[in-house]
Amino acid sequence: MNQKHAIPGLVFMLLLPAAPAVAQQNETSLLWPDSGASFVPHKPLPDFSYAGYRRGEVALPERRPEVSVVEFGAKPDDETDDSAAFRRALAESAGRCIAVPAGRYILSDRLVIETSQTVLQGQGPGRTVLYFTRGLEEIEPRATRTGHGSQTTAWSWSGGLIQIGGEGSPVAGQRVKLQSASEEGGRVLRLEEHDFEPGDELMIEANEIEDGSLARYLYRGDVRESDTDIARLTVRMVARVEAVEGAEVRIDRPLRFEARPEWVSVGRFEPAVVDSAVERLTIEFPVRPYRGHFQEDGLNAFAVTNAAHCWLRDVEIVNADSGAFVSGHFNTLEGPVFRTDREPDGRGHTGHHAITANGTDNLITGFDIQTRFIHDLTVTRGSVGNVWSEGRGADLSMDHHRWAPYQNLFTDLDTGRGTRYFSSGGTGTRGRHSAAGGTFWNIRGERDARMPGRDFGPAGLFFVGVQGFDPAAAREGWHVEAIEPGILRPPNLHAAQLKRRLEP
């Protein structure tokens, strides 16, 4: 049977064996031939190897405490509000590793880490517990409306009671325009007058213009008349300058998207906060029944804004409306666990979003979602190149929330009950659920997955080793290989691509 997958200006045709033969015999994807030796990024499979802390090139740091919140007046295991003590510790210990000794701490306000290399470190989940008594809507009300016009709070889909980073842009100085276009997968930018040098990091940003051409590109031409709310699309990536020769700047990684002069500007990447973290503790909220969709109180654990190369490690989140919103770059969430004692709503949900990654090249790995959120893993506007790997859920949903999430990878995941693999939300006027490049690799559950419908995404999506998938049922332009998840090699596409890049 012929399978097509489209990329801009080119159509590839692959002849695949019938589905039963692939399932019985084939362990290696056609997209990863010769154990990856002949893999060429973006022809057609995206390169996901740059996701996570320091682009996966070094391990997460192991910091030792230099000061303790107790020195600033925090007292575990009593009924005293410790918010002021924690704020003093963060303000007066910038750039240091702050110990949070074992015990239970009462907090009624937000904690914001606005400085680089500042780490809040507990002594392990269940031993160090941060108990937040109030939600963000009570602390700082932010009334707004949903895409359908219903009254709600902005904290329904954003913000955290612990925040790393601040407001503003990660681009320093003037942005530079392109002289001419560069193709997706290319490594050379021809810029107008600039002062970039080898070693500089660049933010390459494409913004929609009046003719809607960026949306058509991201959706591979599959934009409908009803998609009236996709005028504000933006896609970004960060790359390092390897060489400069006049107007030509060579970068160290392939372009994720076509760089057209009418869309793209380039600026020096200087995020406000780097190398900060929260690790080895529990974030807990009161046991209240979940009030339902868009009725949240903002009991949200964690957020990253305008920050890069930060991490959340070995953290347990209990009774949350939402778990983590990550909108920075190259951040890692390692081993988060979600559980609840809350009474669910009428549909069995105990919260809204478990983890949302609407930044670029973030890595979420080793997660365990032991309850059921409306949306477990979410990508949406601005979600580019994020990786979800080696995780599991009670009944996991890979939510593609429209607004052109582009080239995100879901790999080596256990969906638990397996009733919601591709269950996705988002206002219907914001395009199909996923833009091109979405990749699903080694996905399994107690039940077989159902092929998502036409509205899920355009040509240029990749489904390899998704349990129960039949290539005959795929939309034209989707690449589907019916390999059993248990025998697919490599089982983790991100890990394989990273190893290939670092050990060619």
The computed structural class is mainly beta
Q: Which parts are unreliable, with pLDDT below 50 for 5 consecutive residues or more?
A: 1-23
Strand-residue fraction?
25-35%
Kindly state the number of beta strands. Answer: 36
Tell me, briefly, the overall form: globular
Radius of gyration: 22 Å
- Terminal Cα span: 33 Å
Helicity range:
under 10%
Subunit organisation of the chains:
single chain
Q: Overall pLDDT, averaged? A: 94
Major β-sheet profile: 17 strands, parallel
How many helical stretches? Answer: 5
Folded structure, characterized:
With 504 residues, this protein is mainly beta. 7% of the residues lie in helices and 33% in strands. The strands form six sheets. The chain has a 17-stranded parallel β-sheet that branches. A seven-stranded parallel β-sheet has the order 6-11-20-23-26-29-32. It has a six-stranded antiparallel β-sheet with strand order 12-17-14-15-16-13, with no helix packed on it. 51% of the residues are buried. The N terminus is likely disordered.
